[in-house]
Amino acid sequence: LPELLGQLLGDITTDDYTFRSVEVKGLARRIDGLFLPPVDKPQYPLYFVEVQFQPDDRLYERLLTETFLYLGQYRPQKPWYCVALWSRQTLDSGTPLHYQSLQDAGLLKVLSLENLPHQPTLGINLLHLIKADVKQPQDLRPEILRLRQQAQQLPSAGKIQDIINRQRHTL
Fold first, then answer.
1. N- to C-terminal Cα separation, the chain
2. N or C terminus: which one in the chain shows less Cβ crowding within 10 Å?
3. Beta pairing, strands 80-86 & 46-52
4. Cβ(47)–Cβ(18) under 8 Å?
5. Local structure of 24: helix, strand or coil
6. Number of Cβ within a 10 Å radius of residue 158
7. pLDDT tens digits, 84-101
C-alpha cells in the first residue's frame, strides 16, 4: 500500500511507488516492505519499512542490516530511508546509540501508530483496525464495513480486502 507510506510520513507522494517484499541473497533475509519508485523518477527515494506489533529489541539491527545488504547487493543509484513503525510507543526500547546518527540525519524515521493523528484516510484507519483490541469485536464491525466500502475505490482494493477479511476472521 504505497499510499499508506505517504500518509504515515506526511511529506512524500507515493502514488507512483510499487510495494515489494524482497529477499536479500546469501543470508535469506526478508525485508517487510520495500517501496520502489517508478523507473522514470530516479530522484524518488527507496523506503525500507519494518512494522512491529510486539516488543523486539533487535528491530533496528535487522532493519538496517537488511537495508545495507540490499543496497550493497543491488547498488541502487537513489536516495533511501528506513521507517520503523511500532504499533505502540512503549514497545520501542529506543534507537540504539550506534544507529542514532542515522536517525539524527533523517535516514531512519521512527513512528508509532498510537501517536499518528487520527486522519480520515483508509491506510491509517486500516492500521488502527489491525492493532485493535478484539475484546469487543462487535464494536469493530461498522469500521470494517466502512473500510471495505472505501477500499473498493482504490487500485489496491484486492490487497486491502484481504487484510480486512483476515482481521474480520480474528473477531
1. 23
2. C
3. parallel
4. no
5. strand
6. 9
7. 999 889 999 999 999 999
